[in-house]
Amino acid sequence: MRRAFVWGWLVGLSSVVGGASVATAQVDSAQVDSAQADSAAMEVLVEEDFESGAERWQPTDAKKWRVDTEGEGNNKNHVYHLLGKSDYAPPHRSPHSISLLKDTIVGDFELTAKVKTLQTSRAHRDMCVFFGYQNPAQFYYVHLGERTDDHANQIFVVDKAPRIKISEKTNPGTPWKDDTWHDLKIVRRVSDGLIEIYFDDMDKPHMVAHDKRFAWGQVGLGSFDDLGLWDDVQLRGVRVKAAATPSP
To answer: In angstroms, rounded to a whole number, what is the distance separating the alpha carbons of residues 182 and 232?
Structure first.
């Protein structure tokens, strides 16, 4: 039987910066099927505390990201600092500031992280997490906004068009507290399209959606146009490998 392939994009560092090309990748459909696993079958793929820098990450605008220290003495800690709105211009209305985890494509996954906003309070101050990232025009993201409307504090999909909300459940607004670290968890199950977002309360979803458009992709951190800190990122999931692209 002929093996079917799912064609997508494996985004390299040059692909998201300043108009450079995007590398093509192919993903075996059998791998996508095997990437649908329950939580017990997942392995820890990445544990990132930024103590050794951020070489695993590929930002849309490198000058807006750096590793900084927070605290003093024995409490000193390294964090991934987003310095404000990126100059990157996405092809469709969607966030500007994205830093993707390199060389890691997942199907089912659970991502946990600590996040802190450094933005002054305003309706749409936010931080975002990206997943199912196929290319700059096709991906999911969650916008953790201070106030909810059709364009904020929702789960969104970008699919060759400006982002649209796909949340079935959200809340009045993400309860950011100034100068406070928050716990975040993203759960993705490909088989039924489940997306769950947890914020501080790890027992009750902050947002819920179902969508099956993208069965695999990269994950990333960032914001629409604000600034903040990230730390202690852990990605558990089922890795999907991109096959080498045949020579023309």
So the answer is: 11
